[in-house]
Amino acid sequence: MDMAALGGKVKKWDACDEQLKSFAHMAVASRVGCTWCLDFNYFEAHNLDLDMTKAREIPRWRESATFTSLEREVLAYAEAMTETEPTVTDEMVPSLRAHLGDAAVVELTAVIAFANFTTRANVALGIESDGFATACGLEPLAQRAAVGS
Q: How far apart are alpha carbons 27 and 141 in whole angstroms?
């Protein structure tokens, strides 16, 4: 229940664009392999009227031509924070700060850290997709490309 309460607080943050935060969380879920988080966040993206074409492509964002350069930076940053050991480079943060501003970068970083907290816990506990997206008739997510998985 405390994890859910913390998630409710994270949802209230508003310094960073909701679509960027959603995509970052989905990138973490895809990288870690949390089917529940990926499914739920895809469902949430639909409910928030975010770009579903892009949301669907998150698992294979590197191969997809649908993302802007800023979205690609955010997705790369989310994946770099997710690696064990993190692979965030000195060049990533200043570029994001230039595009988003300090407050949004701090928020985005915290959202990605929270996504790592929840996705890793779900995987460790064996929590899998509940079919949120399918139950709402949403098209399936793209499959991660074999290269780079």
A: 12
CA pair distance 60, 96, nearest whole angstrom: 21
Q: What is the DSSP string of 77-92?
A: HHHHHHSSS----TTH
Alpha helices in 33-136, H assignment, sequence order: 35-47, 52-57, 69-82, 92-100, 102-124, 132-135
Domains plus CATH for the chain?
2-135 (1.20.1290.10)
Q: What is the pLDDT of residues 72-88, one digit of tens each?
A: 999 999 999 999 999 99
For 39-61, what is each residue's pLDDT tens digit? 999 999 999 999 999 999 999 99
How far is the CA of 112 from the CAs of 52, 120, 138, in angstroms?
20, 12, 25
This prediction has a pTM of: 0.89
48: three-class secondary structure by DSSP: coil
